[in-house]
């Protein structure tokens, strides 16, 4: 607002001396009032003050920008659009001001949910000046939100050139999404191409998971087992997530065969004897739950007892998992003993997954946070249920 005030002061000096002082004093009072209203959170009154400033002097460009921004933040998108369109249509403004108004108009469309108009207007801005980080970033977000992975890829590459930031991880995820679309459509050749490109940018967890799914479909079990072992060895915390992702639906015509191969892969994992792997709580819990699903609760209980004996300070989730196993096996006295020890400090998790950037919570798998739009920020907590 101080910037707006100084701009308006310069504009006033161009007016006739007769009106200069009165207009300047009136605008000073208006900007002061508007500032006070904004500080107190009263946007409606601030808007009224800016409208008064426009009535005093309709050449006040900065007032229009301030007013348009306030209308937008107040949810009055149509009014914001009208103001920014009127600025673009003016003949007496320079090109940088017109570009700024065009950018504001694109943001209006974006905030208002007019996706197609937002895209076209953002592109209009880039046709005039391609060095627009925020505009390119907005287009990346829109195309990623709408699942247009080809365009999302193109604009991420453009963003990396403008911002000089490493976009390799994000580009890898986008290429995995492209590959996944081909996988779901049965175009395995194109899926391989996009997946290879993804690995060239970054060997993300999602890329490795899709490669395992491809190997299962192509009946390359030995390679699938090696890939799974290497992935879990590098990212043990992702173990449960990996098996959830591998269990996602496939095309109906290959579903039965895929499930059979996945069951074989699960059996391979259950029987892995690796001291380093079995020191990870996530690996142990995943192993236990897969054993339960396979009807081997006795074996799962033994695994949990051994873990608890070697790790007496285990988390509540590990203790709760053992209790549920003991109840399933009818060992009520042992279950009651462990329950009594647990109840005093039980902390129940609300969701299985959360975003490390913004704290978004979800039981669903997400590689890109629906709330802050960052990639691979998913974190895990074993849910007591």
Can you walk me through this structure?
It is a single chain. With 385 residues, the protein is mainly alpha-helical. It folds into five domains: 1-127, Tetratricopeptide repeat domain (Serine Threonine Protein Phosphatase 5, Tetratricopeptide repeat, Alpha Horseshoe), CATH 1.25.40.10; 130-202, Alpha Horseshoe (Serine Threonine Protein Phosphatase 5, Tetratricopeptide repeat); 204-274, no CATH class; 295-349, no CATH class; 352-384, no CATH class. 70% of the residues lie in helices and 2% in strands. The chain has 19 helices and three strands. Strands 2-1-3 form a three-stranded antiparallel sheet, with no helix packed on it. β1 (353-355) and β2 form a beta hairpin. α1 packs antiparallel against α2 and α2 (17-39) runs antiparallel to α3. The longest helix has 23 residues, at 17-39. Residues 1-9 and 54-58 have low confidence and may be disordered.
The tally of structural domains comes to 5
In round numbers, the mean pLDDT is: 83
SS-derived structural category? mainly alpha
In DSSP terms (H or I, runs of 4 or more residues), the helix count works out at 19
User: In the CATH hierarchy, what is the class of the largest domain?
Assistant: Mainly Alpha
Biggest beta sheet summary: 3 strands, antiparallel
Q: What is the assembly state of the chains in this entry?
A: single chain
The count of β-strands is 3
What level of helicity do the residues show? Answer: over 70%
**Strand-residue fraction?**
under 5%
CATH superfamily of the largest domain: Tetratricopeptide repeat domain
Coarse shape: elongated
CATH architecture title of the largest domain: Alpha Horseshoe
Strand order of the largest sheet: 2-1-3
Topology pattern, helix = H, strand = E: HHHHHHHHHHHHHHHHHHHEEE
Low-confidence stretches: 1-9, 54-58
